[in-house]
Amino acid sequence: MALLGVLATIILAMFIIFFGGSYFNHTDKLTKDSTRQQALASSAVRGGYIYADGTERKITLVPFDPNTADSTTLLGLGLAPWQVKAIYHYRAKGGVYRRPEDFSHLYGLTVKQYRMLQPYIRISSDYAPASTLYPSTAYNQGRYPSRSYEEKNTALVGAPHSTKLHEGQRLSLNDADTAALMRVPGIGIGYAHAIINYRNRLGGFYSPQQILDIGGVPETAVPYLFVNAGEVKKIKINHLTVNQLRRHPYINFYQARTIFDYRRLHGPLHDIRVLAHDPDFPPEELRRLAPYLDYE
C-alpha cells in the first residue's frame, strides 16, 4: 500500500509539472494582454500614443509648420520616427507643403491622426506663390506703377510693344523661343523663361492652359497659343526609379513610390487608371498625367 501511495504522489507531481505550467503561462498571457488593453485605453484618454514595440509617448498637440518643424516637435505630435524621417527626406528633396491638405499624403498617416493634427497645421505665407504679393487688380486700381515688371523687362530687351501679337494671331507653344513668347500680350522676359523651363521639365505642353500652372501667368495669354498633337515627350513609366519618376512636375514623391510599388507587386503598368483607387491619384491628376506616359 505504501508503494502505491508513493507512485500516486509521483504521478500527481508529473501531472502538475507538464500541465500546470501551460495553464499558468496561459493565465499569465491573458493577464498581460488585459493589462496592455487597459494601457491602450488609458493612453487614449490621456492623449498618449503606444508604438508597436509597446513603448508609449505623450502626444503634445501644438501649432506646427510641416515645412520647418523639427523632429522633437513632430515626434511629440504622435508621428512615428519613420514618418518624421520621411518628412525630412521630402523636404531635403525640395518638397514643400503649400496647404494643410498636402500633409495628409504623409505615408502611414491615418484619417484619425490627420483630423487630430489638421487644426494645428500652420503653413507660413513664405511658401505661397510670389505672385500673391502683388495681385494684378492692384495695377488696375492705380496702387502700383502703370507698367508691370514684365512690361519693363520686355522694353529692356528691345522688343517694343508694337511687336505684340494681335487678336487672332497665335504661336506654337512647344516651338516658340523666348523672343517669340515675349510677343504674346502679358508675357515678358520673366514669364517667357519660366514657360520654357516648365516646358522642358514637362516634356512639352499638350494644352495651352498648362501655362497657368506657372503662378502669375495671365490667363489672357492662352488664346494666343496653340499646340500640335504628338509633340509631348513621354516618360517610360515601367522603367524609371522613384527618384527619376518624381522629377516630372506632375508626379510627387508619394505618387512615384505608389507607381514603383505597384510594378513590384503586380508587374508593368498598362494603364495609369488602375491606380484610380489610390488616394494619391485623384481623377484630375490622373487626367493631366496620362498624356506623358509611355507603357512600353
Helices and strands, in N-to-C order? HEEHHHHHEHHEEHHHE
Strand order of the largest sheet: 1-2
Q: Please, what is the average pLDDT?
A: 77
Structural class: mainly alpha
Main β sheet profile: 2 strands, antiparallel
The radius of gyration over CA amounts to 31 Å
The span between the termini is: 89 Å
Q: Helicity, in percent?
A: 40-55%
Number of helices: 11
Strand coverage percent: under 5%
Task: Give the low-confidence spans.
Answer: 39-47, 135-162
- The geometry reads as elongated
Mind explaining what this structure looks like?
The protein contains eleven helices and six strands. The protein has helices at residues 2-46, 71-76, 81-92, 111-117, 136-140, 149-156, 178-181, 189-202, 242-245, 253-266, 283-289; strands at 48-50, 56-58, 171-172, 225-226, 235-236, 293-294. 43% of the residues lie in helices and 5% in strands. It has 296 residues and is mainly alpha-helical. Strand 1 and strand 2 (56-58) form a beta hairpin. It starts with a helix and ends with a strand. A two-stranded antiparallel ribbon has the order 1-2. A two-stranded parallel ribbon has the order 3-4. Residues 39-47 and 135-162 have low confidence and may be disordered. The radius of gyration is 31 Å and the shape is elongated.
